[in-house]
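Training component of the fellowship. As part of building independent skills, the fellow (R.M.) carried out the full modelling exercise for a liganded target. The chosen ligand was 5-O-phosphono-beta-D-ribofuranosylamine. The inputs are recorded below so that the supervisory panel can assess the work.
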Amino acid sequence: MNLAVFVSGRGSNFQAILDSPELKDCVKVKAVFSDKLDCPAFQIALAHSIPVYSVGKKPGYLQYSDLSGKLKENDIDLIVLAGFLKLIPENIIEEYESRIINIHPALLPSFGGSGMYGLNVHNAVYNSSAKVSGATVHFVDKTFDTGTIIAQKCVDISDVSSPEEIARRVLKEEHILLPFVIKKIVEKKVRRVENRVFLDP
Ligand code: GRF
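Fellow's submitted model of the complex:
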């Protein structure tokens, strides 16, 4: 299965995909897209000889109108948003229906939406007094963090003393959950029935 990974920053989830022994023989990251030319995730891609594309409105960037063509050129089966901070254009959402997934560092539908990224999420969770947080992988629709949920992993945060500690605990689980879901998709073990998703063993 050919993957396109969209990133904006550090790229640790992208790295987790590359490092996953379960995914090694069944997925190929064909291209990495980012709205930020200088993001560390691009360096990871370049170190693995994976083509990178900066996408956006800036001159010299791949324009959003050309994104569909670039995905087709690379024969992309699945788009993975791994820390990508921009909305995916509607035409791509329609073309790749049920073939775009995102990882979010909290238990959706709480603590999601516009502006809910990075430490903003973990600050909000910390200040909410919640005892659990976690990671969510969901299908992507036309708005931030509202798509149908595929899988979640809870993390006990009852004893944390900072938002940063929540971030560390959740990130560890993200690195397990995202490759797990991708593998399920590869194995065609993800079934969407109306607004619920079933993962077959
Ligand atoms: C992760 O916490 C992910 O859940 C969120 O953005 C962060 C990206 O981190 N969508 P990284 O770039 O994968 O390290």
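The panel noted the following from the submitted structure. Residues 2-190 form a domain with the Rossmann fold fold (CATH 3.40.50.170). The mean pLDDT is 97.
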